[in-house]
Amino acid sequence: MSGRPRTLFEKVWDRHLVSGPVQDGMPSVLYIDLHLIHEVTSPQAFSELESRGLGVRRPDQTVATMDHSTPTEPGVSMRDLDILDPRGADQLDRLLSNCTRHGIELHPLGSRYNGIVHVMGPELGLTQPGMTVVCGDSHTSTHGAFGALAFGIGTTEVGHVLATQALLMHKPKTLEIKAEGMLPAGVTAKDLILGIIASVGIDGGTGHVIEYTGSAIRSLDMEERMTVCNMSIEAGSRAGMIAPDETTFSYLKNRPGTPSGPGWREAVAFWESLPSDPGASYDRSVVIDAAVLEPMVTYGTNPGMAIPVTGRIPDPNTLPPGQMKGLGKALSYMDLTPGSQVCGREVQAVFLGSCTNSRISDLRAAATILDGKKVAPGVRMLVVPGSEQVKRQAEAEGLSEVFLAAGAEWRNPGCSMCLAMNTDRLGPGEYVLSTSNRNFEGRQGPGGRTFLGSPLTAAATALSGRITDPREVM
User: Is the pTM of this model over 0.70?
Assistant: First the structure.
């Protein structure tokens, strides 16, 4: 390289660049270290390989799990799924067949390491600093919390990576989001990222890779960092990254997929070289004061429509014409009135789960609020651990008993109500306080209405049956 100071992104990009663009406007070829696949976006890709007589280039660098279409109800088997959700059952059968045919490691439904792809991958130590990681899922940016360049790809690109272990990609620009200050009590990593998206907008990161920096980011543990990076795509960015440090190394040590002995020391030495160099420049920089944030909740139909839980819903008439129509449409769908408070709105369901907030620390946080209390009458609360490992740990710690005693449903791992792609979904007109990542129209069921919030806000809301400031019950 030129010897100039480089950002974390540039270091990972340069290391994986197979060839640059042959002319202006053309993509580069980027090598991919880890390809994660699941049952929804892989069948068409495997069919394309077969039609061309191609095999999988690096099955040893491809790992599969079943998560999107899987049932989470206790006791529901694959045979039951054939009746309840024939399409989902077919997707799972095809993934099993394709992985068997091509020699790809698969973590099937109910197996020891099964789980949501962006939960089980880091748990196993598959995701490591300096890697390039792709998956046919928008929230692959989760893995950027480790200092990896990780992003979602489409089904056609899944086929490209299966066949070549490389990808055509235009080099993104860089956006530094520096979050300074300590998060106040009751304010979580979920509130931080919702606050960031509300500030920069859903297109604020378009064409960029975000690097999150600052004292607020450095103080987060790895599970909190994954929550932040998970929602980078909701700000329009290609990926989100956080430089690796001792917090990262401590999390990764002794995981099944990480090296040991001399190999571990060599890996750490490399990882320590990855943080952005002093003097490295970004194409853009934004500063966020994390110390003034409050618990956040969305009110509209994209994650950028978020306000403090104590705030009031904006009036479309106060916005520029381009934004006025969008907010008016969102409020009409959500059946909300400008100027009213979102706090106190009734909900029929609470969902604690998804690749954003289904890890053990999320469940512990919610359990601290629910312990010894009862979910409000008429409210259905689903608690869905992100993986079999999380489920076992939560049960060993007694968290599952807290949820069950409170009247919540304790489910098996899976994507569940994050998206209406399985049997867990909202009914038309129902409201949910959800710890997932998207509040699009119909995302959690046709006609369903979503408020996004943190695990603390979810638990507090479950107790009252209305959107509640978690600080009131902590």
Answer: yes
